[in-house]
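Consider a typical record:
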Amino acid sequence: MPPTNRAFRLAPALLLVCGAWLVLAWPWLSGRVTIPWDAKAHFQAQFQFLADSIHRGEWPFWNPFVFAGSPQIADPQSLVFSPPYLLAALVTPNPGFQLADGIALGMLLAGGIGIVLIFRDRGWHWIGAVVAAIAFAFGASAAWRVQHTGQVLSLGWFPLALFCLMRALERSSAGWGFASGFVAGFLVLGRDQVALLAVYVLAGWVAWWWLAGEGRARRLRASLVPLACGVLGGLLVAAVPMAMTLLLAGETSRAAIIDLPGAERGSLHPASLLTAFVANLYGTDGPLAEFWGQPSPAWGPTDLYLARNMSDVYLGAIPLVALIVLGAARGALAAREARFFVVAFVALTLYALGRYTPAFAPAFHSLPGASLFRRPADATFLMGALAAVLAGYCIHRLLAGDLRSGLARTLGGGVALAAGLAACVAVAVWKGRLAQAAPFIAIGAVSIALSALALFVAARLAPRHAGLAGLLLAATLTADLALSNGPNESTALPPVLYDVLRPDSANATIALLRARLPNEPDRRDRVELAGVDFHWPNASMVHRLDNTLGYNPVHLNDYSRATGAQDHVALPDQRVFAPLMPSYRSRLADLLGLRLIATRGDIADIDRSLAPGDIAEIGRTADGRVYENPRALPRVLFPSGAIAADFEALIRTGAWPDFDPRATVLLERPQGGSAGTGPAGTVAIRRYANTEVIVDAESANGGYVVLNDAWHPWWRAEIDGRPAPLLKANVLFRAVAVPPGRHEVRFVFRPFVGMAAELAERLAGR
């Protein structure tokens, strides 16, 4: 166990880290800008749905507002199991943009504090901890990809889990072991590639602990109880949500395993590593038309599937100088206590580079879970975290005065820095972008020079004025990151752009949709928000509009195959139809109760098969046009008979049998029914909530109550409080056979019971 550094000044370290965080986070905390793209288009809507559901007294386990219904509790991006978002949702029914942004940025602060605690336990200098924590929270992908909320959350948990794990092993502590597993459980709940790779780093630390010191057998034995407690803590947090997600994965559009070529399209281009020297080298923070990094036309057909902000790895000039001059040239990175972090950083860098190194293919094929994710460049999140730790360690060695001496070594490091800047110039000249890149290269050169000077001065101040030395480095790094990694088009946009995602928005399109939806006891008509704008598909979750589409890479596969629904529908050509739903003028559109369609332009740009009069335009707003489908069927039907149908064949061919949905329901296994001649009786929705739908049905001869909501095996049906078989009807929907008389039919979503039953069936081999 490393000796505790009694000279470690925790209070000043935390004060400087929190002060830097407040300065760098203030543009978002103040409300001047907001974290855009996925943070709003996807996660803000999830956050609003969670909070609104809780304050309505409804479970947020099923989401009726996208894709005709979705098992929200099993969705890894739903925030249902995220402690900070869940706590905030308990407090307010309408969480605003600033609160959502503050939580994401706050998780980065929490991770930074975890790094400070790691430094304290290892006896490393507190000023190095300050630099590491600031660089962790606002460097590399933590800054440039802050809009990827789920991955940011995973990154924030990582240092805290590592801190607890280190203590558990070094102290042979069951309590810290349990804590490490408990915290790692929330890390795992990210269920993204950052979480997966972080778990491998944590496992690597355990292996390193076993093998790197003396008394390996003793270390192994002493670690068994803490690790067992860690497994218990992790299972308590993550077992149920993970089981639900794994079961859902087999039923969703992401069920297919990603192949190696598909994953390699998400590789980090080697030229992206030059952004470690010059943050905005490729024009990442400007208009998209001016971006010339990878992938862009400037590089030809690189066949990379990356957004422009996914390739920036700028950590700050102080960390860069520390790593190259103090770490590589003067030997700090060769120290035994730094080796694990060096090895892990190199491994993650090779992984991130994907197809550009021979290491990725073996890792992809051998590491469990790697084939679930399509973008090895996601490893840049953890590359930044480990580089921040290493930079802080190098500063610790500088301030401890035990680096290798010699002017030649220092000059060698300076030459390496100059070579990096020269490479930036060379690439800019090669691509004919020197005039565009020159100002940013100049900023990088000045930042490096000032940071080197700050390190030189801090080293001389630290023995007698450590507080001033820490303040100097913290202030220099904060100013650098504010300039180079500060708000830009990828990370900060005016909140007004996302006004439609506010519950109190006065948006004219939303108002028109609400005004034109019928208010009848058997109806709950749906809308479709197609090709309006990037952030529109999930606006239905904010305004409680039942949507046939949405923005989410996870949605039920049968629904996607039947309707053509894709992950996103920001542009008209992203609304893809399917054989079973070849047009808005189709039986499935009517069964879905698709009444209103909002789109940016003419609906013919989306559905070219429409004939005049098929869909009527009912209004125009600043956002586009709204159309009405007059043939939309009620949400609940009560046909008198049933006929058998092969649902898989229907999805594949789109060849509906000749039947009237009001009179007959299609079932895979009809219960002695036959084609009906009309409705069985009267039916009306009495209560419609997220996880419960109550229907009143009355008939003389009985029939089938059909609820045109997405079928899922975790739903259950009851008739007058008694369980009844839940049937899959008309390919996608729910039905229950109802005897003659007056009855209460209840559909209830029971995810825990459903998950247990599904697991039992799979274990039994059924």
